[in-house]
């Protein structure tokens, strides 16, 4: 037999082991560990908790709770990380609550959540990352809330979804919701029928039936790009050789300033200048690969320069008859039957608006249109494939001249009725129809359309110190820019459905006098001359409203 002490020592060892194990299960304060109690305001069963009229989301629940419901709660939002202390949840329900916002990462730390019902609440806004990390979720209901839109890609990463319920909201089917239509066409989840509450063109339509291409979400704007530290009264763009250039007439500095595009710095830089006096127009004209510039001056006569490519400078080749052109205000260049012309509008009492023709060696006076009328602008255009000029004058209504091919001169055709005090006329075309923009300094500027016999009113625009109403076309975009000496410059965009211009943008330009476009490196720039401030350059940018 063994020694009794040996048996006692063995028995005592087992006693010590059991005692140590028991002690390890007792909390440090000597009390037995207990499960978290059901929070105040909540009712808990074996695996479910229902909270009613609580003021905030409780942080502790019994560990065996896998479904949690909130009814008539008093909190205003579901904040980020509200449920990190209940990672075992598989179902979460909110109904008849007063909160209106779901914050970023509101459901963080719920890796097992499969059902999320947020119904009959007042939700108007959801963070784009509200449902981030809910990779196991298979059923999501946001039914009967106040949602008008949903942030783009709010369901991103929720690949397990099989059911989404958005019924009972006021979803506006505009570009902000285009992503949802695209998502619906690619997801495996099913959605109940939901309807558009707006805009008017989509109201009442089933969102499930919409197609991504039914949304017109591309718009554009002119964004400030570069400011030039000089005043200017006119701007022209032209191509010579393979390069594009810009030339500004600077009346106070007395120069024609030529700019070119710097492909490295991505800005416009000085290229060359022509020194002059009280310069009002610097009009480039390319004939047989030779560059000519007609420089119109208020004092000292007007001149014609030619670019000497070998010497890389401009050389004056001709003076313009000072008896005919005393106070030039505008110049237009054009080609008829292969022959090159330009016309100068003269605004003096004793001058005469005159057409000049290139004869191979120089320009000579071809036709004086009319004296004594103080013409402020001349516009060349084709009406029914026939060359025409429209002269604007401070002393009569705009006069339309038509080219007589037999006489090779312009004959007066008609005037534009009820349009006194028009400072300038510019034309544009939309889908083959001919329109003109007529500028008035004070009063109403107008857009008119050629109906086959006469120009008829289309639209009026209030003018407050307007010296320019310039149409510009960029791809499928048609704009009209109405300058103002007393207010902001208004940019209007052509609405093809309404067949008229609608407000698009406002530009802050001091005393604008001319606008022109230039396209370089697949970019389009709007050049704006300013008579009393810095000359401005804007870039035309496309904007996707669905992003």
TrEMBL record:
Domain LRRCT, residue spans: 169-218
Broad class of the protein's primary localization: cytoplasm
Alphabetical UniProt keywords: Cytoplasm, Glycoprotein, Leucine-rich repeat, Repeat, Secreted, Signal, Synapse
Gene3D superfamilies: Ribonuclease Inhibitor (3.80.10.10)
Family annotation (InterPro entries): Cys-rich_flank_reg_C, EAR, EPTP, Leu-rich_rpt, Leu-rich_rpt_typical-subtyp, LGI_related, LRR_dom_sf
Annotated compartments: Cytoplasm; Secreted; Synapse
Keyword Signal listed: yes
GO cellular component terms attached to this protein's record: cytoplasm; extracellular space; synapse
Secretion signal, residue range per the UniProt entry: 1-30
GO aspect biological process, one term: myelination
Pfam families in alphabetical order: EPTP (PF03736), LRR_8 (PF13855)
PANTHER family in UniProt: LEUCINE-RICH GLIOMA-INACTIVATED PROTEIN 1, LEUCINE-RICH REPEAT-CONTAINING PROTEIN
Record-given protein name: Leucine-rich glioma-inactivated protein 1
Organism classification: Eukaryota, Metazoa, Chordata, Craniata, Vertebrata
